[in-house]
Specification:
The chain has 98 residues and is an alpha+beta fold. It has one helix spanning 2-51; strands at residues 58-61, 66-72, 76-82, 85-90, 94-97. Strands 4-3-2-1-5 form a five-stranded antiparallel beta sheet, with helices on one face. The longest helix has 50 residues, at 2-51. The radius of gyration is 27 Å and the shape is rod-shaped.
Length: 98
């Protein structure tokens, strides 16, 4: 009878461990699909946006400046804000296009 009780205790312990492993895998899966994956997607879209900027595009910077792209270099972009007013920003400062 003692052997039966010990066998049941060992099998219950293994099942509890399996449930804990499944629970942790589920938690990691939820974090991946609801937090990490959307951030990676957003970063990829931003990178594509910055690579596709060309002269004449209307953009908005992270500081809220609206302007038309006048010149694009490898790391900078020059915006034409008004007649004769041109400002140079890092490409990473461009938030979105209009």
């Amino acid at each position: 009878m003692l052997n039966v009780i010990l066998a049941q205790a060992q099998s219950d312990g293994n099942q509890a461990m399996i449930y804990q492993v499944v629970m942790w895998v589920g938690i990691i899966g939820v974090f991946y699909f609801f937090m990490i994956r959307p951030q990676q997607k957003k970063a990829r879209e931003q990178k594509e946006l910055l690579a596709g900027i060309k002269k004449g595009d209307e953009v908005v910077t992270i500081g809220g400046m609206h302007g038309k792209v006048f010149l694009v270099d490898e790391t900078t972009v020059t915006l034409d804000l008004d007649k004769g007013v041109k400002l140079t920003f890092d490409k990473s400062a461009v938030s979105r296009t209009k």
